[in-house]
Amino acid sequence: MPVINPESNTQDTMLKGSAWMTAGSIFSRILGAIYIIPWMAWMGSSYPAANALYAKGYNIYSLFIIISTAGIPGAISKQISHYNALDEYSTGNKLFKQGLKIMILMGIIFGAVMYFGASFMSAIFADGDPRSVPVIQSLAIAVLIIPILSILRGYMQGYSDMAPSAISQFVEQIARVLYMLAATYFIMKVQGGGYISAVVQSTFGAFIGAGVGIAILLIAFARKLPKLRALSRNGKAPEKLNKNFTKEIFEQAIPFIILGAGITLFNLFDQSTFNQIMRMFVKATNAQLDNYYSLFGFQANKLIMIIVSLSTAMSVTAIPILSGLFSKGVKKDIEDQISNTLELFFFIMIPASLGMYAVSQPLWTTFYRYDQLGIWMLQFSSIISILLGMFTVLSAILQALYCNKLAIQYFIVGLIVKIVVQVPMIGFFHEFGPLVATSIGMGVVCFLMMRKLHSLYPFDTNRISRRISGIIVFSLVMFIAIFFINSVAFKFIGNSDRIVSVVILIIEAIVGSLIYGYLVLKTKLADKIMGARVGRIRRLVKIK
Length: 544
What we know:
Largest sheet: none
Strand content: under 5%
Number of helices: 22
Transmembrane segments: 20-40, 60-81, 102-124, 136-156, 177-198, 204-222, 249-269, 303-323, 344-364, 376-401, 408-426, 432-450, 471-493, 499-521
Main location: membrane
Protein name: Polysaccharide biosynthesis C-terminal domain-containing protein
Membrane topology: Multi-pass membrane protein
Organism: Companilactobacillus keshanensis
Structural class: mainly alpha
């Protein structure tokens, strides 16, 4: 009988799951950024105001989504995997049914709070801007059903089945973007209406997308149902029949709420304080301050979240795997999985962030038109994205290993650091100040989490360091090549031509991918991180 290597199995599961979630996240994020091009054109001269209004509404919506789902999808994924590892499939199904009831109730409660409390939310988070009230109310309708969408994804992920989640995520985004673009075109170009109505309909697209996403997941669930029933019938009978599932769900969910809201809380703090603090150091109109905030808080943020979503995909995949290993109590396997997860994170995130830094000029010009300040904002944000991604992955690992309180404590420390340094950083760096403060706060969080994780599960830091060194060197080679293309191209071509920027962006993306891909395949670094299956790719492209 062949010997099964547990590390290989978990590595394959991690890679397969990450591939699905990465594909879903990347395509969704790219689509969510591409819509800006026609949306901006149809908004015309109202675009800056419309963009700032959209950003304010969506940041509030993001916080409410995290609160209304209450971290339950992540908790469900974690606990389903836990019970599956113990062969208690029926217990996991009971947990899911109770979670679904809670999600329906949470959607109703928080959707109502957001809708009827829109004026209050506007006063706190949008500087009292009355235009934001109908935008917040339109997003409140989506909050009604997003919790159901989220828990269905969490259940599938508990079985390490990432394909339905990834597909539903992509289709959800397609439906949302199609609706918002159609509505914007009709209001602005056909009716000749105002930008506020167009923004309201654009944000209402979140409800349309969520409805379609739920439909996709229900179809996948129906197809999987016979297998789930068989597992439940053949699995071990639960030892405790009187478990308090509601208590168990919320005990595991609270950390997911706090840590899942981490990046959003940093963004909301910037949104709530940026204008007031900036007025302490510079003389600027509200419109100018809104433009500064929009550059880093919405436009640059939307682009870097494309690559931060890579780490989110990995964390979603890692949680059920690590939770299952923890339930089995094999410490060595946990250490190996932590090493694999961190190496995969750096293998993808470092070249992605440096690549975005390198292509920042054609990328920004393609989506938002040429703006030197915006390009600098994107470059700075690209580097910070490594810390944002690392926070996402490390907090997920700690939660999967039931170190919830520690993860929350470290995040709170980082948030306090961010709050303390915000004023001096804005004083020194003005509009770049919030980004500097975020990098300091997130840096503290990541350091504390990494140190504690290594003390609990001493994974192989020497191996990780060697591989990260190779990743950095190969990423810098790619970076230099792209930077050279930029220098040559924009020396002879104007900065503001959008079509030319698209062409340059495509060329640089292809060149960068080929250089990094060739180097990691030639040196077999990809094999060490992603497993022996990479050898097939090398043979296919004839790299020895």
